[in-house]
Design goal:
By secondary structure, this protein is α+β, with helices and mostly antiparallel strands. The protein contains 17 helices and 7 strands. The longest helix has 24 residues. The chain is globular, with a radius of gyration of 27 Å.
Length: about 375
Amino acid sequence: MRIFKNKSFKKYWRHTPHSDLIIENLEFIDKILNPPHLINCPQLFFLNNQEVLALVINDNLNYLIGPIFIEEHGEKFHQTLLKTSVIQMDFLCEELCLLQNVISGGQLSTNDVFVQNQLYEKEIQQNEASLTESLFANQEYEFIHNPYDQEVRELSSVQNGDLEKLNDSLQEVFEGHFPVLGPNKVRSMKNLAIVDLALLARAAIKGGLDYEKSFSINDQYIRSVESLTNSSEITALTLQAKRTYTELVHELIHNDFKTSSNVIIKRCKVYIQTHLHTKITLNKLAKHCCVSTQYLSRTFHKTQAQTLIQYMQHEKIEATKRELIYTNDKISAIAVDYGYSSASHYTMVFKQLNHITPTAYRSTHGKI
């Protein structure tokens, strides 16, 4: 980072580099530091398609950062062998917003940086042109999408936990077609499934399903969709997701859990559902819920008609079932991933709850 005052170079932030080709190019520096500038917003200067400089302005001080190599895929930040900063554009914008807001007291967001710098304007314009062409083609060929009201009935069934109405909506015959959302049929079906899964997760949350549990289930279904190789598998998995979400909401509505308003128990359950891949102890749970271990254990057992250990084991085993059905991961890897000390320990617990081994369960249900 180079710091300028009244357009004159003052110093480097922290470390002075061995050489600086940017600061040596006086004509280029003069061009960057002279107006017009964006007001209260970091300004980006692309040296090429992937290298960028960033300018942050505050009164008479200018902060020139870079060059930074933009990488669209991979980790948010890492170093190359040449010590060049490599970062994703969205993360760079987040960091620039933080700096701008600290020095100017503003409330800039990443979206502001994208919009004011007109980032990816070419791609946006290409999309606008494609949108116009698509709308024209749909009118020309009289293309009709699948009906919105059928989608509303389906999602309403999930939200209300109504399995009968869900089946009715799935059996409806309607005019219209699903759009093409990818370069081939399988990719298009995957994209449609991901959209469908996102809507299902939110319908279930509206129906009372804990949002962390809903999103966690959604994440796993999306990962499973990505692993599939034909459209029939994708359709079957999406149908299963609809039934799964509806059944979960149905259980919530029709089982009189007295703790639906119990903040401590809800907080406890959310912690368990978001830490299924770790070893969960009673001490950790009690500390998270700000109560004693004895109180938490007693309250949970009294209100849930099961012990904390039973609930944790059930949640973990149910999560591993999805792994067994929809992935090819080894059972030993699944066991370790969900915090079991060994595959044999995992198998023992699985069999106690399901009266069948994980291997037999996978063989019976198979990968959709």
